[in-house]
């Protein structure tokens, strides 16, 4: 009995082991989780310049500190930007979607209102508000290092239902749409997958790995290079536009024949 008593564990031993395991797990998570490199690499001068640009151009909708704003009717005039990361700002501002020209169901792509340096500064400031997806490196978006065949398969499974298999875009509901993906910067394609702008879902690294995203970029780049080998593509929107084109030509021929026969009879 005395020997058994000597080997009996203290009542708090299990709790101590559990706490140690939790601490070890948390430490490993912090050590191995991806860091917000954009915020860490940005200089304080960039962050300060970005804050000035933000206050002058973005705070009206997004709040003085990026906390977002709600109008008097309870509608969100601008969402919170805390935690969206540098990648989201680089995409929205770099493609001209922000600042928006007018309120609507979706922001349209247009010429950017800020140059590359200003976009970098705005991204640095918003990244400093809270950790979020970083701007991808040049290696991560290099189409030459991707597999376009694999990227095409990934694209058809995850993206084609909205953007069309040829990347020509398509209509959604309530005035929203999936934009065309041709002639889009590889960095912006990667950022869109990473941040899920507008109506797009987020494809983080658990959904699509960085290699998968690069393969998708390689596929879209191949579409850009190949163009339309069959001639005029009619927007590459499929049988709807092709059928409309055929009916238009067919009806024009019928009307032309009818007019010619009528004129000949006279």
TrEMBL record:
Binds 2 heme c groups covalently per subunit. PROSITE patterns: CYTC. It is a multi-pass membrane protein. Pfam families: Cytochrom_C, Cytochrome_CBB3. Keywords: Cell membrane, Electron transport, Heme, Iron, Membrane, Metal-binding, Repeat, Respiratory chain, Translocase, Transmembrane, Transmembrane helix, Transport. Gene3D superfamilies: Cytochrome c-like domain. The keyword S-adenosyl-L-methionine does not apply. One of its GO terms (molecular function) is quinol-cytochrome-c reductase activity. It is found in: Cell membrane. Heme c 2 binds at residues 159, 162-163. Its EC number is 7.1.1.8. Heme c 1 binds at residues 58, 61-62. One of its GO terms (cellular component) is plasma membrane. It catalyses: a quinol + 2 Fe(III)-[cytochrome c](out) = a quinone + 2 Fe(II)-[cytochrome c](out) + 2 H(+)(out). Residues 45-224 form the Cytochrome c domain. The cytochrome bc1 complex is composed of a cytochrome b (QcrB), the Rieske iron-sulfur protein (QcrA) and a diheme cytochrome c (QcrC) subunit. This is Cytochrome bc1 complex cytochrome c subunit.
């Amino acid at each position: 009995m005395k020997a058994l008593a000597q080997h009996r564990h203290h009542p708090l031993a299990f709790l101590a082991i559990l706490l140690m395991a939790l601490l070890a797990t948390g430490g490993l998570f912090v050590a191995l989780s991806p860091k917000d490199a954009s915020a860490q690499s940005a200089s304080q001068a960039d962050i300060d310049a970005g804050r000035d640009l933000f206050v002058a151009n973005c705070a009206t909708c997004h709040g003085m500190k990026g906390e977002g704003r709600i109008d008097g009717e309870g509608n969100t005039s601008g969402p919170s930007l805390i935690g969206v990361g540098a990648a989201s700002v680089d995409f929205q501002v770099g493609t001209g979607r922000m600042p928006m020209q007018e309120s609507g169901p979706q922001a349209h792509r247009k010429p950017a209102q800020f140059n590359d340096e200003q976009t970098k500064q705005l991204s640095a400031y918003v990244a400093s508000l809270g950790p979020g997806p970083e701007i991808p490196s040049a290696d991560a978006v290099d189409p030459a290092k991707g597999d376009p065949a694999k990227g095409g398969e990934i694209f058809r499974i995850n993206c084609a239902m909205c953007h069309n298999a040829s990347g020509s875009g398509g209509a959604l509901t309530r005035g929203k749409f999936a934009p065309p993906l041709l002639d889009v910067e590889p960095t912006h394609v990667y950022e869109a997958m990473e941040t899920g702008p507008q109506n797009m879902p987020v494809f983080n690294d658990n959904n699509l790995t960085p290699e998968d995203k690069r393969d998708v970029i390689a596929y879209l780049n191949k579409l850009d290079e190949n163009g339309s080998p069959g001639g005029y593509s009619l927007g590459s929107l499929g049988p709807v536009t092709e059928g409309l084109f055929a009916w238009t030509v067919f009806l024009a021929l019928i009307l032309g024949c009818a007019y010619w026969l009528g004129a000949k009879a006279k």
